Amino acid sequence: MVLKGLIYQFPKEIKLLIIAFICTLSIGFYSGISFVRSTTNANPKGIEQRYLGNEEDENATKMMFKKSEGEIMTTVHSHILSLSVIFFMLALILSTTDISKRLKLFLMIEPFFSLVLTFGGIYLLWKELYFMKYVIMISGFFMTATYTVSIFIILKQVVSGKKSNVHLT
Questions:
Q1: Per-residue DSSP letters for 95-144?
Q2: Model pTM score
Q3: Most exposed residue of 43, 64, 139, 155, measured as fewest CB within 10 angstroms of its CB?
Q4: How many angstroms separate the CA atoms of 58 and 79, rounded?
Q5: Do 141 and 124 contact (CB within 8 A), yes or no?
Q6: CA–CA gap between residue 116 and residue 98 (Å, rounded)
Q7: What CA–CA distance (Å, rounded) separates 123 from 153?
């Protein structure tokens, strides 16, 4: 079965459904990223303090305490389950686009590695493996970047309605 470029052949109703899904999903995804940025200041120290607390910092403007095991497990569990379904659905749609096989495979698979590294990293940071804060930052960046590139490609091709002569490699 050939999936490459199938997105151009979808009926208008399916294309509108994809647009509505991607737009709604993106509101949720980017509001989550905004929440992470506001609770961690998007830096390694902020990530560490978010999960391990800042009780020893006498100059802290906001007191934070180490998360309980239940809070960490709930965060890891719920995010891995929900985001894996989101990235799977996104990958299914992406599989129908007209881009190079290598790029498509990377965009479809990479978010799952980042997902495990990010939320596994949060758990390991909570277990006081402090270097994981850098892994969390890098993998979170890659997860967000691949999401952004994927939705851009999908929206561009679903809206264009015709095959492009330009192929991303």
A1: TTS-S-HHHHHHHHHHHHHHHHHHHHHHHHHHTT-TTHHHHHHHHHHHHH
A2: 0.88
A3: 43
A4: 32
A5: no
A6: 28
A7: 33
